[in-house]
Write a sequence for this structure.
């Protein structure tokens, strides 16, 4: 299988299936398509459109040429193909809850995602303070995420949202990266979960590769003119 992704430093949607597959040891070939522009006719757009009509990453291509786009569709496909891995929790009630959390992430939290775009290499605590002071919708998004994580961790006992690592943790890994980059205020139990998550095999490998990219993409950098 191939997994087409964007820059690891910036591409939160690419991070989700990559981390999931790496964490569970599912073999795949990575195809990184560097962001240059998201405009029609850009090199990035043309390369993605050659594989997927959606024109976005990530894209999973299986050995028979089946193309699957959208992170939830990719996760469900992997769960069907590799039932030996608990990509979703084994317990039916926990599984339904995990799917609900992922669907809410998929459809929501636009304010937090917009004002705190993923940028693993950067350290932007001043921006985080400003966002928390000036963007009430982002504050509300963060509060809802803290509520969901707290409830899940208390119900499961940890160390991850539903006990063992699952797609829910992979799905919220980019949020954990935002908390780290912008130093957003969270309770101690949530900060401890973020620490555990970033030390998990899949997330740690993604972070290491993101830091090694050293690729400054201005279109993905609303708060800096350079990496220095």
């Amino acid at each position: 299988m191939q997994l087409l992704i964007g820059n690891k430093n910036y591409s939160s949607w690419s991070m989700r299936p990559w981390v999931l597959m790496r964490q569970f040891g599912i073999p795949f070939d990575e195809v990184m398509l560097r962001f240059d522009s998201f405009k029609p006719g850009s090199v990035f757009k043309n390369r993605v459109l050659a594989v997927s009509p959606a024109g976005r990453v990530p894209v999973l291509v299986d050995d028979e040429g089946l193309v699957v786009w959208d992170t939830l569709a990719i996760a469900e496909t992997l769960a069907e193909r590799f039932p030996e891995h608990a990509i979703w929790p084994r317990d039916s009630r926990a599984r339904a809850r995990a799917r609900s959390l992922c669907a809410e992430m998929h459809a929501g939290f636009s304010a937090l995602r917009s004002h705190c775009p993923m940028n693993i290499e950067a350290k932007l605590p001043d921006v985080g303070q400003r966002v928390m002071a000036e963007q009430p919708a982002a504050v509300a998004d963060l509060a809802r995420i803290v509520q969901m994580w707290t409830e899940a961790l208390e119900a499961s006992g940890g160390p991850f949202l539903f006990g063992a690592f699952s797609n829910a943790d992979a799905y919220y890994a980019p949020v954990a990266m935002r908390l780290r980059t912008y130093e957003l205020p969270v309770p101690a139990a949530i900060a401890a979960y973020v620490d555990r998550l970033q030390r998990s095999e899949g997330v740690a490998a993604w972070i290491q590769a993101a830091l090694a990219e050293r690729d400054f993409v201005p279109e993905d950098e609303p708060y800096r003119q350079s990496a220095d």
